[in-house]
Amino acid sequence: MADFQNFWLNVFCQVYIPFSRPFYIEPTNIVNVNDVIQRVSDHASAMNKRIHYYSRLTTPADKALAGFTTGICVIMLMGLLTLYCCYRVVKSRTMIYFIHHINDTDTILSTNNTNPVICPSAENGGHPDNGSMILFANDTGVQQFEKWWNKSRTVPFYLIGLLLPLLNFKSPSFFSKFNILGTGSVLYLIFLVTFKAIRLGFHLEFHWLIPTEFFVPEIRFQFPQLTGVLTLAFFIHNCIITLLKNNKNQANNAEKTEDHAQSLQQELDRERQWHQKAEGDVAALNRRIHLVEELDRTQRRLATALQKLEEAENAVDKSERGTKVIEKRLAADTRRKLVKLVILEGELEGTEERVEVSELKCGDLEEELKNATNNLKSLEAASEKYSEKEDKYEEVKLLSDKLKEAETHAKFAERTVAKLEETTDDLEEKLAQAKEENSGLTSDTGSDTK
């Protein structure tokens, strides 16, 4: 299909000529001598191995689907068409102008479908016959085999268990070590076909339209299915010829490889320089990013500090307002307490004066009492002397009455003095408490002011 596509591109797309060159042709005529040639031989070789192996497997099934006679005719027609396409490709070299750095490669791999082919053989070398099998009701061997080996239910899971570990390999070079298995499989197919041909012989029967059990018909209307496999086969043949032509002179390949290695080394040096420069740029960007991050963190810390400062200023303002209110209240309380203290001091002074007056009265009463006592004593002496006189006796009674009155006055004065002393003590205690409250308010006012 690639050659067919290139043919139509050569016919209808002459404006853009580079598309007419297949990827396996070296672009020696459309680049400069000093330009590095992009080699795709390795990719083509790997792809050719896979497609060559798959095409060999699909050939018998395609013959069965296309028919024997129609298949041979299709092979001849596809060969002629491919020859014409190759002729057009070779002639297109004269139509391509000098263009730099043009390359078109196909990267999509595809295969045709395959169908199973059964080739039974007779035991004695004769024609194959049908066989029969007797299965008993109690026999479960075939059922167990079909249960554990089913191509649509169980076999895919077996393949998953086998292929899933292989898919985890990162390097594809591991699989290149198994290329010999493809060669071994091809050799096995050649040996099997040769062995069957020797054992069974060549059998050819002409059945033009009706298929039989063991032979394909000569003509089938599904013969276009063979064109895809034939296109792939001729494409592989062309690729193999190109590879063999490129590997004809190993010395030229070595020189090209050395030139390619030098160019790759130069590209590697440029990549290293660019990588070092990029690392320097990345380091500078990292430093700049680090500085920007530090600036962002500093700005966030500054914003946080300013917010805390505003909160502290608001708290200080509230505290100052509260302090002023408290000072006003304390000043008012202090004034009220000072007024009360002055009143209490005045009352205390009046009480002290009354106490002094009472003490003076008590002193006078005591002196009178002493005088009365002395008079009583003198009267007693006089009464003893003048006991006979009744007049003196009446005076003695009078003196004794006065003495009783004086004692009564003295007792009343003592009680008054005691009450005054108690009042004085209470006033002194109230004064001390008022002084303590005044000192406490003064200390609180000082601490709030600080």
TrEMBL record:
InterPro entries named in the record: Tropomyosin
Pfam families per record: Tropomyosin (PF00261)
Comp. bias (Polar residues): 439-450
Keyword flag Transmembrane helix: yes
UniProt-listed SUPFAM superfamilies: Tropomyosin
Molecular function, one GO term: actin binding
Residue intervals passing through the bilayer: 64-87, 178-202, 222-244
Region (Disordered): 423-450
Biased composition (Basic and acidic residues): 429-438
Keywords of the record: Actin-binding, Coiled coil, Membrane, Muscle protein, Transmembrane, Transmembrane helix
Origin: domain of life: Eukaryota
The family this protein is said to belong to: Belongs to the tropomyosin family.
The protein, known as: Putative sodium-coupled neutral amino acid transporter 9
Gene source species: Tupaia chinensis
